[in-house]
Stomatin-like protein 2, mitochondrial
Amino acid sequence: TLTQQRWASRLPMNTVVLFVPQQEAWVVERMGRFHRILEPGLNVLIPMLDQIRYVQSLKEIVIDVPEQSAVSLDNVTLQIDGVLFLRILDPFKASYGVEDPEYAVTQLAQTTMRSELGKLTLDKVFRERESLNSNIVHSINQASDEWGIRCLRYEIKDIQVPPRVKESMQMQVEAERRKRATVLESEGTREAGINIAEGHKQAQILASEGEKAELINKAAGEAQAVLAKAEAKSKAIRLLSDALAEQNGNAAASLSVAEQYVSAFSNLAKESNTVLLPSNTGDISGMVTQVYWFLPTNRLWDFL
């Protein structure tokens, strides 16, 4: 068989004195029965009785897992291949536990990979490749312990999907990108509208605050003007009162009232052709005295 030819091509001859290379284990049988495992270095065997039956490499072995088909949970047929990394830990089990360790591990990796892919949908196969690799390694190690082999890691090299499924996936990706673009554009429009509204709001607030400050300042100015006017009028009234209290004050007041009396009748004659005169227009002093005594002091000042 191919296995026997492979082992025969690698088996050294019993030359009594043998030198075993580093990271190799030579399995020796004495009269057809397992005898011992030769360690690296100098070893001596009995000719004719001892025979080197197996040579196991203790280095890490890389096995290319052939491409195979598998069906996902959503019934999509995939073509998938991978790379398997393993190491022989027990040369005795690897020699007598299984006929061809590498072939056995390869077949186990393929069946495990099909089983694990059947548990996942197509989208999860691409998203969870790391967890898929970990599950395959765990499943292989559970079965390969009896063979003295330890699977270190498993890596999926390539996953091929049917052309129609690939086209559908491409359309889905393009639709997703268009959706993202539309969402981003709408969010940009919304942000722009919010910013414009905030700007109008701030402008209105600032304008109202400006109007409020203007009204407050205007009211304060008018209040100060009224107070100043009132103080001036109060001072004028006090001065007029003091002036009337002095000597000849009444005569001066009478003269001012008479002048305004005459001026008022002159203006009245200019504005209208019809003039109503009192019966005693000739008695100016009497009219002045009447106005002077019947008006209060503040009203007299307004009249003057």
